[in-house]
Amino acid sequence: MKIKTALVTGATSGIGRATALMLARRGYNIAITGRRLPLLQELCNEIEKTSGVESYILNFDIRDKHEVFDSYDMLPETWKKHLKILVNNAGLALGDDSFEMCDDEEWDQMIDTNVKGLLYMSQLVSNSMKENGEGHIINISSVAGRHVYYGGNVYCATKHAVDAITQSMRIDLLKYGIKVSSVAPGMVNTEFSTVRYRGDVERARKVYKGVKPLSADDIASAIEFIITRPEHVCINDMLIMPTQQAMPYYVDREE
Ligand code: NDP
Ligand code: 8X3
What we know:
By secondary structure, the chain is α/β, with parallel strands linked by helices.
C-alpha cells in the first residue's frame, strides 16, 4: 500500500483528536501535536490499536517558534516525503470580556497560538509539500472569522486573520499544486468553552444549554469530505453551523 502521512495540530482533544482518528481510519500515518504529552500518548495507543497505522508524537507549544521548528526537524524524512495533509487546528479563545477590560497577556496567547503558530506550521509543511509536488492544508477557522460579536474582539480578529491567511496561502501555493481549504464551525462541544472560561465548567456548560451543538466528529467528517474529493477539486471554504445557530448571537434555545 502507498505510504501517506498527515499532521494534525492540537490533537489532544476536541476537533483535532477526532480528525486524527478519522485520518488514521482512512489509512494515514499520523503525526499529532499538542502540549499535553499523556493525552498524545493515549491517542497514539488508540490509533495504533484501532487503525493499524503508525503515529508520531510532536510535543510542543505552538507559540514557541524554536520548539515548533526543532520538533518538526525530528519528524523522520520518510514522513515528510509522504506528507499529504496538514490540519491547522490548534487554537483557543480566552474570555469574552468587553475590549477595554481584556488582559493583554491573553491577547498575546490567542494571537501567538491561532495566528503565529498556524503560520510556523504552514511554512514548514508547505516547504515539504512543495518538494513532494502535492499536498492539502486545512485551516480550522470559525464563524468568528466571519462575524464579530460582543466580547469576541481579539479571538474574532485571530479567526479573521486565519481566513485572510488561508486565501493568500491558496494563491501563493497554487503553483505547487497544494490545495488550501478552510473549515469554519459554529458551536462545537469540546474543551473550547471550558478553556475560554478559564476552567469554569459550569459556565462552559451554559453555552450549550438548550442547543444541540456540533460534535468534534461532525467537523472531522466535514474534513473527510474535503480530503476525499477528486484531485482536480478543491473545497475552498466550509461554514458549518448547528441547526439551532444562525450566527454567533442568534441561537434558538429550547426552554
Ligand atoms: P479544544 O480546546 O478541545 O482543543 C484545542 C486544541 O488546541 C488542544 O488539542 C490543545 O492542546 C491545542 N492547543 C491550544 N493551545 C496550544 C498551544 N499553545 N500549543 C499547542 N497546542 C495548543 O477545542 P476545539 O477542538 O474546539 O478547538 C480546535 C479549533 O477549532 C480551534 O482552533 C478553535 O478556535 C476552533 N473552533 C472551535 C469551535 C468550538 O465551538 N469548539 C468553533 C469554531 C472554531 P494542548 O492543550 O494539549 O496543548
Ligand atoms: C468558536 C465559535 O461563536 O464562540 O470559534 O466564536 S464562537
